[in-house]
Amino acid sequence: MVSIDVIESSPSRLRVRLGGVDRAYANAIRRIAISEVPTMAIDDVVILENSSVMFDELVSHRLGLIPLKTDLDRYNLPEDCDCKNALGCPKCRVLLVLDAEATDRILTVSSGDLISEDPESKPVSDIIPIVKLAPGQKIKLEAYARLGKGSEHAKWQPTSVSTLIETAKPDEFELCIESVGSLSAPEIFARAIQRIQQSLTEIAAQIKA
Question: Are 118 and 88 in contact, with CB atoms under 8 Å apart?
Answer without folding.
Answer: no
